[in-house]
């Protein structure tokens, strides 16, 4: 499958690219804003694609900017499709359930869908997908969703303020990505896009509870898929600033005791491993699994890189001063034995390992040692 997409650098675009990587599809052709603005250039870039995803759009701004951002990009893409010598077989538009609701945003999304549908006479199947409110890891606060905004406020130590008491229908962004790509429902994504219906005050209360538990060193109840994904969404706003988490070592003349995991509900599995000097474990990422590392004996370096980004975050850890590092979802990670003796590491996950659905996708962390995550993909 050859895939091309617009809006690759946005919230939804990043999640689509992560899911494409997880299922092993080729790296997609990414149309930049500059390329999209020149139909002749865009036509050449999308020629021969099996699937074209139009994700680019504007959610916030002045009414004129919102209308121009959504309508102009769609019209330019439609022009490129008419010029394309080998148009894509399928064109999918990330529309909104607000399309046609008489607001600048809703009217501009409806007009964009109309422009792409009008060009389908050149021979592609057009799929107009109305998306509800999306939430998920690394959403942009004060822009993508109220979930991202509340998570950011809580991660910064504040309390979310509820100004509107509306009921929301929230869909995890990976489910939306699967629907747009055309994947059947899998272990970690559901392309039927099941919605979590919750009002804003309850959402604020729930996220506040998640933050309170996690700040105290506890895992909240992770009893269903939305609970896991909402927790992972909150955690994405805490990493790497809140890692590693220190552990309390209680010692007496008998030895020592260290509590590594406190979980308030849901499944879980604990296991230990030994790693020889100089050997690395990991080099993969997870889409939903919550995973904790704790070095019990020896010294190691835990290294992580957000999928699609370049820079690496590194944590030196030792069994002498016990700490834990929680792996954020959609970050490649590895642990390397940096000592001269065998490394003993304790791992905890929120779910039992299923070899038929491991939620584990190969991805090398790489060699960079920069201590930042703010690098564009």
Automatic annotation (TrEMBL):
Residues covered by the Capsular polysaccharide assembling protein CapF C-terminal domain: 251-361
Coiled coil: none
Residues in NAD-dependent epimerase/dehydratase domain copies: 4-177
Biased composition (Polar residues): 365-377
Matching Pfam families: Epimerase, Polysacc_synt_C
Residues covered by region (Disordered): 358-377
SUPFAM superfamilies, per the entry: NAD(P)-binding Rossmann-fold domains, RmlC-like cupins
Protein name: SDR family oxidoreductase
Biological classification of the source: Bacteria, Bacillati, Actinomycetota, Actinomycetes, Micromonosporales
């Amino acid at each position: 499958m050859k895939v091309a997409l617009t809006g690759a650098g946005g919230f939804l675009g990043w999640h689509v690219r992560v899911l494409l990587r997880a299922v092993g599809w080729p790296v997609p052709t990414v149309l930049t804003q500059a390329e999209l603005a020149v139909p002749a250039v865009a036509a050449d870039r999308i020629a021969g694609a099996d699937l074209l995803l139009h994700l680019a759009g504007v959610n916030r701004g002045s009414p004129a900017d919102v209308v121009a951002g959504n309508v102009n990009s769609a019209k330019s893409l439609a022009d490129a499709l008419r010029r394309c010598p080998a148009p894509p077989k399928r064109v999918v538009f990330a529309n909104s359930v607000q399309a046609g609701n008489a607001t600048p945003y809703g009217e501009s999304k409806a007009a964009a869908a109309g422009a792409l549908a009008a060009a389908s006479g050149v021979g592609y199947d057009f799929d107009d997908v109305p998306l509800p409110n999306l939430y998920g890891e690394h959403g942009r606060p004060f822009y993508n969703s109220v979930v991202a905004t509340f998570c950011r406020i809580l991660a910064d130590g504040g309390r979310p303020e509820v100004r509107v008491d509306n009921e929301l229908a929230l869909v995890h962004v990976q489910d939306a990505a699967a629907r747009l790509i055309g994947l059947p429902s899998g272990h970690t994504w559901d392309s039927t896009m099941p919605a979590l219906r919750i009002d804003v005050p309850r959402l604020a209360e729930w996220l506040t509870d998640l933050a309170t538990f996690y700040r105290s060193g506890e895992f909240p109840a992770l009893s269903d898929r939305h609970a896991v994904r909402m927790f992972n969404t909150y955690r994405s706003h805490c990493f790497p600033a809140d890692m590693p988490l220190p552990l309390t070592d209680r010692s007496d003349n008998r030895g020592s005791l260290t509590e590594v995991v406190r979980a308030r509900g849901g499944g879980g599995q604990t296991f230990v491993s030994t790693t020889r000097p100089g050997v690395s474990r990991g080099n993969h990422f997870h889409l939903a699994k919550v995973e904790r590392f704790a070095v019990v004996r020896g010294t190691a370096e835990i290294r992580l890189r957000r999928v699609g980004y370049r820079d690496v975050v590194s944590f030196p850890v030792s069994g002498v001063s016990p700490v834990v590092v929680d792996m954020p979802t959609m970050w490649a990670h590895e642990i390397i034995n940096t000592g001269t003796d065998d490394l003993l590491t304790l791992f905890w996950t929120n779910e039992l390992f299923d070899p038929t659905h491991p939620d584990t996708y190969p991805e090398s962390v790489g060699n960079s040692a920069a201590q930042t995550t703010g690098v564009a993909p």
